[in-house]
Amino acid sequence: xxxxxLQKRANDVRKGIxxxxxGAKAGHPGGSLSAADIFTFLYFEEMNIDPQxxxxxxxxxxxxxxxxTAPGLYSALAYRGYFPVEDLPTLRHLGSYLQGHPCxxxxxxxxxxxxxxxxxxAAVGMALGAKMENRDFRVYTLLGDGEIEEGQVWEAAxxxxxxxxxxxxxxxxNNNLQIDGPIDQVCSPYPIDKKFEAFNFHxxxxxxxxxxxxxxxxxxxxxxxxxxxxxxFHSLKGKGVSFMENSVDWHGKAPNDEEYAVAMADLDKIExxxxxxxxx
Amino acid sequence: MAENTVKKIATRESYGNSLKxxxxxxxxxxxxxxxxxxxxxxxxxxxxxPDRHIDCGxxxxxxxxxxxxxxxxxxxxxxxxxxxxxxxxxxxxxxxSIGYPHLNVKIGAxxxxxxxxxxxxxxxxxxxxxxxxxxxxxxxxxxxxxxEARAAVRAALEYEGPVYIRFGRAAVPVINDHPGYHFExxxxxxxxxxxxxxxxxxxxxxxSALGAAKMLEEEGIxxxxxxxxxxxxxxxxxxLNSAKKTGKVVTVEEHSVIGxxxxxxxxxxxxxxxVPVKKVGMQDVFGESGxxxxxxxxxxxxxxxxxxxxxxxx
Lengths: 280, 314
Known about the structure:
A: alpha/beta; two-stranded antiparallel ribbon; B: Rossmann fold; 13 helices; Transketolase-like_Pyr-bd (chain B); Transketo_C/PFOR_II (chain B); Transketolase family protein (chain B); THDP-binding (chain B); thiamine pyrophosphate (chain B)
């Protein structure tokens, strides 16, 4: 898929995020928006998947370790055809299958997650299982930069590095903000790249909003043998919605009706720009 | 039979042996440990099937997640550590990464209860049954001897879903080695019939209950002993039938009286057939260092202790 096409999809995914969180009157837009391009690339380009057959045996797996950004995952899944986009506003509603955090019973969701630090371990187990049975699928997991303050992340990293799980791609959405403030002021996990290197990962730093960079990073990860890869994605929290960008206030808050209108207008504007770019 | 001629084996040993014996029959079985393979006895399995034994190092939280991931690609993981670390330290991982998605992961937790002995209170887990039975969909078993431990491991492998099995460190008498022995998840067994009082016991305390019943018999008290291996789902029928017959129930477990077998039995009786109950177990206290035998005696979990508790109750 061409970059322009991916950008359009990512913008749709962002609209879905804002719409879902607005419908829920709760949820986590900031970290969903910062990872929207990553979700888009994974589901529209990178992973071997089939929305018509979500449980396909040899599919690539994805575990959203930073499970609170479920709106981002759900929106990508919906736009990729796993379930109707119209269901997104039912997020977090009683009776909806779109639970506040990823639940394994949702089409396309490979593992329940959301209690931070746990998703990466499940991804490591999947990658190990693939190795034990000589199966070719790859396993992807996305962590938050605040999330890696959890000790379990480093237990998992130690294990994955030691076991040389080169079918595992760990991604860190490094938007530099967690609930209580900038991560380097709360309990800094920096330097993130050096830490994963020390745990025997091949580490790539990449711009989370540049599809050339994203594509190159995943290619390099796929071609890396003998060790797992960690891509540290440098991202902008709230990306695409003017008043949410780089604002810690929008980590876990839903826009009201007025704010929702502004957010959608921001994204409509981006959509028009992308359409215009396509005509040129 | 004289004490020294009774065959004794620790249920952790039964666990390691049965993993090895069932490996061929269950080719998807893999065993995970956290640097305790010699103690949990999964080393027995490792020696025979090194490629199917995964040592996760001293990192139980990650180990539970790895097991979850393995189960999602078709493996049947048996995860091992001491009860303190499997159920205690990694509780939330068991709840969220195994229980909530209802994965086919089996947890073999050894060194449960005070019979860990000399290591003392930090390693004596008297809370694991309570913790595990609060997780929706989790099967919780506590075998009484070698025969039952082996049967429980097989049953766990045949069952689809999360299972917690509690094993002990100390060698305990084999009490179920008789023709006609049958094991089923969720089914208790009346191991001795009686009419004056019901003693419901689990794990190594079943032997103590049988010993107590013999002592009571000498005084003309007829005690019925019910062995509950599966604490969840509980065999309510067997407990209610016995309670209706005797009208008095004593529960015995090598576990806190809060949240374990005693609580489960009380939940059942309160709802369906209230009778007086006495709960024998760890009375909301931590254990301490000492030999397993000395500790069991001090905390009233041996035959004499159970006998005394029943006498005081009647």
